[in-house]
Design brief:
Layout lengths: L2 H7 L4 H8 L14 H18 L2 H14 L3 H15 L9 H14 L6 H12 L2 H4 L3 H14 L9 H7 L1 H28 L3
Helix pairs in contact: 1-2, 2-3, 3-11, 4-5, 4-11, 5-11
């Protein structure tokens, strides 16, 4: 799951959402300095990643890309799935995607102090490029994949991944829909248990 899905799966709790957003930028068990609900958001982020990485439907999506993109297959599938979530956002939320995105941008800016330096560096680019809504269009997804390709150390070929999406579009979308129904149910229960638990 990429940024849009992580933010969506955070639910309505603001601090949980901030922690979930910054999950990739927090190392190991470095949670003690964070407010409790932000720390729980990091834990939520890790559960989303773990569930996604070990799900058989996601495995099917990755298998179609693994030979060509090797270990970048997972990154590509995360971005494909964010595309399908953005494109079909009205099926999953009563809030329009543009309004959801603006709300989350404002929330993250208001909690900038809690976000680790790598996330602080990235956030202005995310907002300026309006990544969350641009995922909805294949052109926007292609720009993101191309930008990521420039930042990888090796020849990842990520800029070519839009061709694979187009070729297998309906299959990837079906796999996304089946998987997303399952992760929504799983994370909804996990999130509630997490909020009610003690760290």
């Amino acid at each position: 799951m990429n940024f849009l899905a992580h933010l969506y799966l955070s639910g309505p709790n603001a601090q949980l959402t901030v922690g979930n957003f910054m999950g990739d930028f927090v190392k190991g068990s470095q949670l003690g300095h964070l407010p409790e609900m932000v720390a729980k958001g990091v834990i939520l982020h890790r559960e989303i990643d773990h569930y996604t990485d070990h799900h058989p439907i996601v495995g099917l999506s990755k298998d179609k890309l693994r030979l060509k993109y090797r270990h970048y297959a997972g990154v590509i599938v995360d971005m494909y799935y964010d595309h399908f979530l953005a494109k079909n956002f009205n099926e999953y939320s009563s809030q329009p995607l543009w309004a959801f995105a603006q709300e989350k941008y404002e929330l993250l800016q208001a909690n900038y102090e809690f976000i680790p330096p790598r996330g602080q560096h990235m956030l202005p680019y995310m907002i300026k490029g309006d990544w969350l809504t641009n995922y909805a269009r294949k052109e926007g997804l292609h720009r993101s994949l191309t930008g990521l390709s420039r930042r990888t150390k090796f020849n990842s070929k990520l800029e070519l991944a839009i061709q694979d999406l187009t070729e297998h579009y309906s299959v990837f979308e079906t796999e996304f829909r089946e998987f997303f129904a399952e992760i929504r149910e799983h994370i909804s229960q996990f999130r509630q248990d997490l909020i009610n638990s003690k760290l």
